[in-house]
Specification:
Pfam families: TAXi_C, TAXi_N. Keywords: Signal. The chain is α+β, with helices and mostly antiparallel strands. The protein contains six helices and 29 strands. The longest helix has 18 residues. It is globular. Bound molecules: 2-acetamido-2-deoxy-beta-D-glucopyranose (4 copies).
């Protein structure tokens, strides 16, 4: 090989060093679980917590001094996005979308717990976070973003320290798209939801890798990237919604498909971080709960039911259940059978299906019956809302560019609360 002049080498290294500006490091947020509400939050502005909502199309906050005076024209991209952002059918507030004279642009923030919405206006804001190499925080960054400025009363029933909601849906004004646009990172994000209110999980915008430490004392850094062994499924979109739907064709208990009413799954299976436990519409709930109980008794015939512990119905005396083991109670697995591309299954074992209650004397099947709309019906409701408890201690990799989701449960020697939040250097 020819010897390169030294100046050329220097020029090349300068170019290489300058390059990362266009493919910047991913952006990291710690994820907390609120003990009172079981909602997950991230601190995005001066440590002000925002509830994460996988189905939320917007970022919204109560107005704060750091919201810059918003000057939008009706032709601005953000204003147009706000006009087309999904508005739940229950959201009836109206008003003019955009007023050219006042340079105001309307948005309709939504509280996923109370299911109320409000008329609000868009404002510019900045989020403070750290970039990451997937293992540690690197350096602090300030991320430009657009938020809807909501009235305080919209915070009802959110965690006491929450100042708004950070929507993570597949829409232009949700957090993933906004971070991707202003930090020039990939349109991908990782979510690792913590099980315990004391621990901190992680959300990383821009994609992997993800490294965690072991749960041992002292903790040891695990050298392998947890995003390298994910199972992928296509994400399905539904007209008018920016939520993430899974192409589920059947639900199985262990290896046996649950027989559901015809077209029961047509309403879709959607991911929902604001549901503490997976919600099943009653026509799906009955057969799944029945199949679980029958399958458990068939292999473990001395299992004893005990009184229900709200919000669960199916509870067992812990002394009569198989286990516990490091992988939880050895109960039948709940399987979402996924179609699309290569067939895959998302399987939930004891750690994500059984909830210990009454000081570990009982354990309940952690799926709940979906509540009807105010009119008493289920029209337009999904068949399944996959909730937080079932997704905890999983690596979830939302790839918005390829419209697919990578998922895997973490091995038992680590958890989502084992990210090393100490800065390198
Ligand atoms: C960034 O990381 C450092 C080191 O862990 C931490 O002290 C700081 O609070 C982080 N900043 C934000 C905005 O999360
Ligand atoms: C998924 O689960 C179903 C039902 O148990 C089973 O028939 C199928 O073979 C499984 N598919 C894979 C890829 O494991
Ligand atoms: C429970 O299962 C054991 C072992 O399979 C069997 O010996 C026993 O007869 C069963 N008891 C009942 C009540 O079915
Ligand atoms: C966490 O990261 C810091 C900075 O790289 C490192 O010094 C420390 O050893 C790490 N902790 C563990 C338990 O690996």
């Amino acid at each position: 090989m020819m010897d390169m002049p030294r100046w050329l080498l220097v020029a090349i290294s300068v170019l290489v060093l300058a390059w990362p500006a266009s493919c910047a490091d991913p952006v990291l947020f710690p994820v907390a679980k609120d003990a009172a509400t079981s909602l997950y939050t991230i601190p995005i502005r001066d440590g002000a917590n925002h509830v994460i909502d996988l189905a939320g199309p917007l970022l919204w906050s109560t107005c704060a001094a750091d919201h810059l005076p918003a000057k939008f024209t009706c032709q601005d991209k953000e204003c147009k996005l706000a006009a087309t952002a999904y508005r739940p059918p229950s959201c009836h507030v109206g008003g003019q979308q955009c007023t050219q004279q006042q340079q105001r642009c309307a948005a309709y923030p939504y509280n996923p717990v109370t299911r109320r919405c409000a008329a609000a206006r868009l404002a510019h804001t900045r989020l403070v976070a750290n970039t990451t190499d997937g293992a540690n925080p690197l350096r602090q960054v300030s991320v430009r973003a657009v938020a809807a400025c909501a009235p305080r009363k919209l915070l009802a029933r959110l965690p006491r320290d929450a100042a708004g909601v950070a929507g993570l849906a597949a829409s232009g004004l949700a957090l993933p798209a906004q971070v991707a646009a202003s930090q020039r990172v990939a349109g991908k994000f990782l979510l690792c939801l913590p099980r315990n209110a004391g621990g901190e999980g992680v959300a990383i915008f821009g994609g992997g890798p993800l490294f965690l430490m072991t749960s041992t004392a002292p903790p040891v850094e695990v050298a392998s990237d947890f995003t390298s062994s994910l199972t992928y499924t296509p994400l399905v979109s539904r007209r008018g919604s920016s939520s993430y739907y899974l192409p589920v064709t059947a639900i199985a208990v262990d290896t046996v498909q649950v027989s559901l009413p015809k077209d029961a799954l047509a309403g879709g299976v959607v991911l929902g971080t604001t549901a503490a436990y997976t919600e099943l519409r009653p026509d799906v709930y009955g057969p799944v709960v029945g199949a679980f109980d029958r399958t458990l008794r068939r292999s473990w015939n001395n299992t004893k039911r005990v009184a229900a512990v709200a919000p669960f119905e199916l509870c067992y005396d812990s002394k009569t259940l198989p286990g516990p083991t490091r992988i939880g109670w050895l109960v039948p697995e709940i399987v979402l059978v996924l179609e699309g591309g290569r067939k895959t299954n998302w399987t939930f074992g004891g750690l994500n299906t059984m909830v210990d209650v009454n000081g570990f004397t009982a354990a309940c099947f952690g799926f709940v019956k979906m509540k009807p709309e105010k009119n008493g019906g289920y029209g337009g409701k999904p068949a399944v809302v996959l909730g937080g408890f079932q997704m905890e201690d999983h690596v979830l990799h939302f790839d918005l560019e390829k419209r697919r989701l990578g998922f895997a449960r973490l091995p038992v020697f680590t958890s989502c609360s084992n990210f090393n939040f100490t800065r390198k250097g």
